[in-house]
Amino acid sequence: MADLGGRITVERAGPPVRVTGVTTLPDRRLLLVHAHPDDESIGTGATMAHYAATGAHVTLVTCTLGEEGEIHVPALAGLCAAEADQLGGYRIGELTAACAALGVTDHRFLGGAGRYRDSGMMGLATNEHPRAFWQADLDEAAAYLVDVIREVRPQVLVTYDPDGFYGHPDHIQAHRVAMRAVELAADEGIAPAKVYWTAMPRSVLDAGLETFTESSDNPFAGIESADELPFGTPDAEIAARIDATDQYAAKEAAMRAHATQIPANSWLYSIAGNFGGEFMGVEYFTLAVGDKGPGAGPYGWEGDLFAGIAVDGAQRSPVAAAGLR
C-alpha cells in the first residue's frame, strides 16, 4: 500500500466526510472528478456504488455547488440565482444524501465549498462571474486536486472527456483541471495508474433511438440519428464496461436525492421503470492514461477499472514515463 505517512481514519457517522486522520486506506482507491452535484449520480452512480460496496475507497471531488441549476421543486424556486441565490447551499444537502445512497463516505468540494461557482451553460453571462469555474486559474485549481491525490493516492481517476461529454463549460474545465492535476502528480511520482473518461457507446445510443421511437416519453424526440447527438463514442474506442446492475437501485435513490435538478416525472425514471438495472446499472468509459487490462467481447472491454493494476501497495505512475495521450 502507498506510504501515506501513518494510519488514516474515516469518520463513519453523519454526512459524507473527507479522510481526516492517519491510517491505511483500502488497497483499491478510486477518485472521481465531477462538475456539479448530481453529475456523479447520473453519470457514474452505479460505478461508485459498485466499488464502495466491494470495499474500494471511493473519493468524489465536486468542482462547484451548482448554483445556476434549474429548480424543479416549485416551493424552492426562491433559492434560484436571480433571487436568494441559495441553491448551491441547498444542493450540498442533496449531494450528501446522494453520497449516502451510493455508500460513498469521502466527498469534498474542489478548494472547499463555494471556492468555484457554477458557470451556467456555454455563452451565458454567468460564464464571466469572477468566481465562475470556467474562469478558474488552471494550475491553482489543479493544485487543489493534487492535494487530494497526495492524500488518497488513487490508482484510478475518472472524469469527463475534453468536450465535457456534452459541452458544458464546467465539465470541460473539470476535465482540464483533472488532467493538469495528473500531470502535476506525475512530477511527484504519485499520479494515478489509469485515467478514464465517461463515455456512451454509439451502439447503445443507436439502440436507445430505436427503442424509444414509439414511446410517448421519448428523450430523443426529433432526433433521427445518433450522429445528431453531442456525445457518443465508437464502440471500438470504449475501454471499460462496468456492469453494476445490482446497484441500480442505489443509483436511482441517489438521483432522487437531487430533487431540485431531476423532476420526479423525469424520463430517466420512466426508462428505469421499464429497463431497471440494464439502464441504470451499466456505465462505460474510455481510457485516457495507462495500460488497458484484460477484457472480454469483440473489443476487449474491461469489466473492472482496476484491471491490470497491481494493487499490492506499489503506486504505479506510467504518466511520468510515457506522458499523457
TrEMBL record:
One of its GO terms (biological process) is mycothiol biosynthetic process. Transmembrane segments: none annotated. SUPFAM superfamilies: LmbE-like. Coiled coil: none annotated. Its EC number is 3.5.1.103. Binds 1 zinc ion per subunit. The keyword Membrane does not apply. Zn(2+) binds at H36, D39, H171. Its cofactor is Zn(2+). Keywords: Hydrolase, Metal-binding, Zinc. InterPro entries: GlcNAc_PI_deacetylase-related (IPR003737), LmbE-like_dom_sf (IPR024078), Mycothiol_biosynthesis_MshB (IPR017810). Gene3D superfamilies: LmbE-like. Pfam families: PIG-L. GO terms for molecular function: N-acetylglucosaminylinositol deacetylase activity; zinc ion binding. The keyword 4Fe-4S does not apply. It catalyses: 1D-myo-inositol 2-acetamido-2-deoxy-alpha-D-glucopyranoside + H2O = 1D-myo-inositol 2-amino-2-deoxy-alpha-D-glucopyranoside + acetate. Catalyzes the deacetylation of 1D-myo-inositol 2-acetamido-2-deoxy-alpha-D-glucopyranoside (GlcNAc-Ins) in the mycothiol biosynthesis pathway. HAMAP family: MshB. Belongs to the MshB deacetylase family. This is 1D-myo-inositol 2-acetamido-2-deoxy-alpha-D-glucopyranoside deacetylase.
